[in-house]
Design goal:
- By secondary structure, this protein is mostly helical.
- The protein folds into 2 domains: about 90 residues, no CATH class; about 80 residues, no CATH class.
- It contains 8 helices and 2 strands, in the order H-H-H-H-H-H-E-E-H-H.
- Helix 3 packs across helix 6.
- The protein is elongated.
- The protein starts with a helix and ends with a helix.
Length: about 190
């Protein structure tokens, strides 16, 4: 078993890595690590350190009168210190992560309603695609045979795309319904 002393020693080494704030266990610790990393510690930075170290709850609740009383500082000095704190990075590890948040949006919902399994299409997952009426009107207003032919072909392709999207939706619904019928016992009883 690893001792707490060894774990804290390793954590301290991790917290010495760059960018400052890596390995912090909470926001307060992250900010303190970054403040300690600013070696100059002018009066604004010293006050910022004191605010984060001794008055973090008052800082997060924006209790300025308590901050003034606890630090013995003026509102103006506190504003400078808070402005400096706001320049710190609350998530220093985020710069190593270039992955965007990707959310899985289901095509269907399977719900148990009044003793029955119901499959519904998730309308939010289906793009709302339609043919612009101005584009459709342009076909009849085309001046040359080539334009009319081109626009008709484009309009026909657009309709095929729309029909394909509708067909996909109905196919997904039929497929999930069929799977649901076969898996009904698994939903209700569990795997056997």
């Amino acid at each position: 078993m690893v001792s707490e002393e060894l774990l804290l020693s390793v954590l301290k080494k991790i917290q010495e890595l760059h960018p400052p704030g890596i390995g912090a266990r909470n926001l307060r610790e992250c900010l303190l690590i970054q403040l300690l990393d600013t070696h100059a510690m002018d009066p604004v930075e010293k006050l910022a350190f004191q605010v984060v170290d001794e008055c973090f709850d008052e800082l997060t609740s924006r209790d300025f009168s308590s901050l003034e009383r606890m630090t013995g500082s003026s509102r103006e000095s506190l504003n400078e210190a808070i402005s400096f704190i706001q320049t710190l990075n609350p998530r220093p590890g985020a710069e190593f992560c270039d992955v965007e948040d990707n959310y899985i949006i289901p095509d269907v919902f399977v719900r148990h309603i009044d003793g029955e399994w119901v499959v519904d299409i998730n309308d939010d997952a289906i793009p709302s695609v339609r043919i612009n009426s101005i584009y459709a009107q342009a076909v009849s207003e085309a001046t040359s045979k080539e334009q009319r032919s081109f626009l008709r072909a484009q309009l026909r392709d657009a309709k095929v795309l729309l029909d394909g999207l509708k067909h996909r939706t109905s196919t997904v619904l039929m497929g999930v319904t069929a799977i649901g019928e076969d898996a009904r016992a698994c939903y209700e009883i569990g795997e056997s």
